[in-house]
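#struct-queue
[09:14] JT: dropping the first one here, sequence first, then the structure tokens:
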Amino acid sequence: MSEAYFPVGPGLGLEENFLSLDDILMSQEKLPGRAESTLPRLAFALGQGAGTGDAIPEGSKLEIPLWLAKGLHDSKRRIISVELPKIYKEAWRTVFSADANVVDLHKMGPYYYGFGSQLLNFDNPENPEIAQTILQTFISRFRRIMDSSQNAYNEDTSALVARLDELERALFRAGQKGLNDFQCWEKGQASQITASSLVQNYGKRKFTDMDG
């Protein structure tokens, strides 16, 4: 029986993959912002008005879904301005640089890496620091995640993954699947070891970029 849905990986960097459930959910995460001009007929959609025709006055504080913030953001017309969520601000960047492994990423934001990468679409003088922190956080946490995935064979892993963001959880699952496949192969229960779907998807994406 064939699968009804084949999981599609999230996009990389500034781009979203609109076939990815993870990216669809991530695009619903909200950004704090401010209306730099009057926004007609958007009050009801953003929970700030009783009728569908109500406008949001200039200067109003907003909580905007990422997908809408990207659509409205225009540095020339100044329709809206967006602020950094607290986990990407300098105070939290200092925490990450000290020891990224102590942070409960899932509690702070289940799409820390993807959402943070999307923030780079907005004009912000702190963008280089944000990008560097996201990269260093991933590097710092990656080894522990993979070590944990290899040392928790046939164990309850709920406590291990509770503090991971969704990308890290996918890596953890890939590590566990790789270990399980290897164990089956060693016992003669599998004819061959196959590459992880994450590796296969990365390879396909890389060749597509080269062809373009």
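[09:21] JT: and here's the second one, same format:
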Amino acid sequence: VFGLSSVAQVVLGKGNTGQYLSINMAFGIGVTLGIHASGGISGGHLNAAITIKECILGNLSWIKLTAYLTGQFLGSFTAAATVFGLYYDALYDYTKGNFTVTGPTPTALIFSTYPAPNVTLPGAFFTEFMATVMLVLGVQVIHDEKNNAALKGTQPLICGILVLGIGLGMGMNTGYAINPSRDLPPRVFTAIAGWGIEVFTAGHHWWWVPVTAPVLGSFTGALVYKLFIEFHNQPDEEIENKKEQRDVETS
């Protein structure tokens, strides 16, 4: 709701009631509050790409995978419906009742991501892939207790700042979906609510990229972290035990 409504305010306000920075900040705030809300229940599973990755790696059961993905889909779909209702009058006035994906007054981009006109499909795919790699690397850094993890209680805020940073640095090409459950459910809603099937055909059938690229990026980010950081870190107890063993051998 925070993220989509901020886009609506920027688009429908024609730049007078918000800027690109306000969109990024709103998504960061939404992520922060979402993790606070669900952290005690699921550990903060807001992203389908990360949820799928955790299940495939054996850290999450298939039953929980189904429950979390269902919750993510329903939450995101409901958010789109909420923002649609909240800004319906402004939408109607801005478009004269003609909800379009492209053209002089496109509004589908309020709800889901679409690639910039000057970006190729491979370039857009790579953008979503790399942005998700950075997301997963950041999440791993924030939560890795064997490393210099964030202080307890600050993780949601820092995750929100992480999303803000990704938007500020890698949002121009595609709008940084970096999450299938953030992009696909609102797209389904717009198809139902008046924008039609074009939401799935626009941008060279772009819709599948925010679904697949983040999943691949999530696995790659986890692999990179394991290879270059996690495998080289040891818990404090192991370090202390090895130090004591060396002291004994020296004696």
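[09:30] RK: nice, looked through the second one.
[09:31] RK: The chain is about 70% helix and 0% strand.
[09:31] JT: good to know. The longest helix spans residues 62-86.
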